[in-house]
Hints:
This protein is of the alpha/beta class. 27% of the residues lie in helices and 21% in strands. It has 10 helices and 16 strands. The protein has helices at residues 19-25, 104-107, 110-117, 125-133, 171-182, 188-198, 206-210, 236-245, 261-275, 298-307, and strands spanning 9-11, 49-54, 60-64, 67-71, 96-98, 121-123, 141-143, 149-152, 155-161, 213-218, 224-228, 250-254, 279-283, 312-314, 322-325, 334-337. The strands form 2 sheets. The protein has an 8-stranded mixed beta sheet, with helices on one face. Strand 8 (149-152) and strand 9 (155-161) form a beta hairpin. Zinc ion binds at residues 101, 103, 164, 230.
Amino acid sequence: MKSLSFSALAGAGLLIMSGATLAADIPEACNSYKPAVTGGPMPPPESDIVVIRWLGNANFEFAHKGKVYLFDAYFERTPRAHQVGFTVADVSKAEAIFVSHAHFDHISDIGPIARQTGAPVVGAPITAETAKKLGVPEKQIVVARGGETMKFGDATAEIALAQHSTIQPGLTDIYASLYQNDSPPYSEEEKKELARVRALGTFDPKVITEGTLAYGLVFPSGFKAVLIGSAGPITPGVRALAEKLGPVDVAIVAYQVHAVADTQIAYTWPFIDLFKPKLFLPAHHDANPPTWVDLGVEPLFDRIRTNMPNTAFVAPLYRSPICVAGGGADQGKVVSFKP
Length: 339
Ligand SMILES: [Zn+2]
């Protein structure tokens, strides 16, 4: 096994293992850029390590004890988005797929991915409707409204009704003119492709208050993660989830769309403060041309380091394995990160 690099790690509470421990205890999956959902190596059943990979936007996979759980399904993205390094056709494996909400940048590829994996697809009622339109077989659709506890594979999912973020009038126009000013004009072909991808979801306003879910993922060891795909105001459901699960081992929270860091931090920080994770990972902070721009995570990380010195954080890269102890005394600590 190649030596593992910690160069991109930051924050407190990281566990740095010795070379001897590395070779013996760290599964091959921690050294692979091939996502588990595309058939990449899985941590074996005897390991307690959880391998987390960011797969662009708010897509994440959690691989644990030979099984993989997928959050969101938006891989073949709008033109000029940075490519995640695999195609929808490559996705073949999942115990369950949890969809934050039915905007295209969370759900666009759910049809083929559901059919190729045969996995249950969990989402709010409007997500279920949209998933059906996008070709998810009806028998795989699991509707949740918040407050449910469900079991998939070895994992327990705790589900809460969250709220989608909203923005002030004018912001998307400003981003559009920024892209017009700072990058070449879109070709007709790109415009067509953009319209095609954007249609693979819904813009129904119900998504904001009725269609956005937060997910807790709990493994039998007691390892707890929470995933928030859009950082709107904290709802009673999300507060109840935090009371049930918090403090968690891993929190993944959307860090988008305000380009002014202090503005965006005001949306994302309350979730970090509420769930008090041992490890924080940002989501949804990469560019989605020609609307959202790439957000730098440094100001948010500085806020965490200053206010929550025991919380570690990693700036994830597409497909990079972030390996976290899933049990024992070191539960929730990063054991390796291959940038
Ligand atoms: Zn959205």
